[in-house]
Amino acid sequence: MSRRKKTFYEDQYASVSVVESVPCVKVKLSGNPKGSDHYQYVQTKLLETIRGQISNYCRLHLLTDSTEAGLVLEEDISYFKSNIIPAMEDAGIRYHAIVLPQNFFAMFIKNQTSLSHRKLKVEYFESVLGAFKWLKKQ
């Protein structure tokens, strides 16, 4: 299955693109951000992409591929919950698929970090393909 994508931001830690066939904004994370400022900058780029692209689709979802991501600081998780999730909801995102790495820490993070919110449904997956399939059904 071909998945055309347009990349809107990319650095060593993150790539933010739109996969038109789903449609979704896909964030691919690798390693660790350089610090909280870098983490917040990447989240700002994510929001810019969502806001700039959502009007091009009848609905737009979010997929975060964390299979190669390192751990994120607690302050960054708090920032994401209190700032980014409400902004994504305000922009119109309703479904967020998160692909976790296959390790003990991923299960710990999943159990300790509930990201579902008032308007946003979050599901966790072991593969990007499974996440794409779920988002397409929404």
Describe this structure in words.
- With about 140 residues, the chain is α/β, with parallel strands linked by helices.
- It is built from four helices and six strands, in the order βββαβαβαβα.
- The protein has a six-stranded mixed beta sheet, with helices on both faces.
- The longest helix is centred in the N-terminal third of the chain and has 18 residues, at about 35-55.
- The mean pLDDT is about 90.
The helicity comes to 25-40%
Average of the residue pLDDT scores: 88
Tertiary shape: globular
| Termini Cα gap | 19 Å
Order of helices and strands: EEEHEHEHEH
Q: Strand pairing plus helix content: what structural class? A: alpha/beta
Pick out the low-confidence regions. none
**Going across the major beta sheet, what is the strand order?**
1-2-3-4-5-6
**β-sheet strand percentage:** 25-35%
- Major sheet: 6 strands, mixed
- CA gyration radius, whole angstroms: 14 Å
Number of strands: 6
Number of discrete helical segments: 4
Provide a brief overview of the structure:
This protein is of the alpha/beta class.
Record keyword descriptors for this entry.
138 residues, six-stranded mixed beta sheet, 40% helix, 28% strand, globular
Q: What is the topology?
A:
Elements: E1 5-10, E2 14-19, E3 24-31, H1 36-53, E4 61-69, H2 74-91, E5 95-99, H3 104-112, E6 121-125, H4 128-137
Parallel strand pairs: 3-4, 4-5, 5-6
Antiparallel strand pairs: 1-2, 2-3
Helix pairs in contact: 1-2
